[in-house]
Please model this.
Amino acid sequence: MKLVFASNNKNKIAEIQSILNGSIQLLSLKEIGCHEDIPETAATIEGNAILKADYVTQNYGYDCFADDTGLEVTALNGEPGVYSARYAGEQKNADDNMNKLLDALSDKSDRSAQFKTVIALNLNGKQHLFTGIAKGNITLNKTGNGGFGYDPIFQPENYKETFAELPLEIKNKIGHRGKATQQLIDFLNTTK
Model:
């Protein structure tokens, strides 16, 4: 089966491709000739995933899936949430985002947070949503060189390491994107 993954983020594509383990052939936006930045103007993570999937289906005619992810911090009333990628500005710089978040939490004792990924799948004229959540805490400092985004400051429940320190296989198993993608795979396996 071929599916378009509505992303040009190489890190996300590699992460999802490793979870899919060859069961589905992924096409990136670039591979279908989509070079524009798809607007992410929805007020929710679900809304942005739907916007991206619908954009590809409506403009390019492909069955596809899109994801959106946000980091929701309890002490900050769920921020940065839908604005996670541009929390510190439109430059979408991971270090700037992490620094702003660590500053915002500097006087907070509750450092609990969760990553939430929503995948919107457009397949055979129908839309399906899959949600993955990884609960954990925001660390005091950045540690680890793996992963991307907020991974160096997110310590998942029951682990001493951050996502940036864990091997990809473990992150995929316990992580938000891995959980949502596994639901997607399970669903696709039932529709074959």
